[in-house]
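Progress report, Aim 2. The chain analyzed during this reporting quarter is listed below.
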Amino acid sequence: MPSVARIGVTPVKSLALAHPDEVSLGPAGVPGDRSFYVVDDEGKMFSARQFGPMQTIVPSFDDSADTLTLTFPDGTVVAGGAGVLADPLVTDFYGRPVRAHVVAGPWNDALSAFIGSAVRLARCDQPGDGTDVYRVTLMSRASVAELASHGGVEGDLDSRRFRMTFELEGCAPHEEDTWAARRVRFGEALLRVYGQVPRCVLTTQSPSTGLKDFDTLKAIVSYRPLMVDQRGIPFGMYAEVEHPGRVRVGDDVEVLG
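Predicted structure tokens for the chain:
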């Protein structure tokens, strides 16, 4: 039976992932996941697609104190209260408008200096709005191994590059694609699986450096058909939470009728 191999979440979109042993899924996904994101000086989303090394910044968020901490690769730590909101924003998330506010604090200068251009930190007005399309993503490690074999990788391909909520083991390669429109139990939670996840250039970057180290997209299209609905390059699946509950690493994943 498939099981949960790794969980991936982050309070700030495009920054380093954390890998907790367990999460509590709610209607909006994992609470606090991607509550913040970065925008450029025009208010457009700025992500690791534009500057891969953003993935090397380690964020942490203390919900009880409403405090956000960013630890940069050189050891610099920038922290402060994240409750002081400034300018309102409406950001285009792949055709979906997301309402947010710029966060007043020390992160904007630190992020701008690291990236080399003016950026600001924004906070979503509604929980769960900071994800791309649906609130949860999933992918099997067998699919990553299959991709690595087609791409000529010697050894393991770092699966963190796909930035999925759940990585699974005990599946056949791309078995998760067959779960579309089905209900799947993850530990105590029940998910409804939707369509394939279209991938972008971010997946070609090493999660450890943010630099390109593998042509993921070329390798995928070498053996997988493009998505029919939007001609995207598919890898992994989207899902939403139908019944909240706790999910732990090692929990069984049961596909229901």
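The CA atoms of residues 151 and 218 lie 8 Å apart. The chain has a mean pLDDT of 96. These observations will guide the mutagenesis work planned for the next reporting period.
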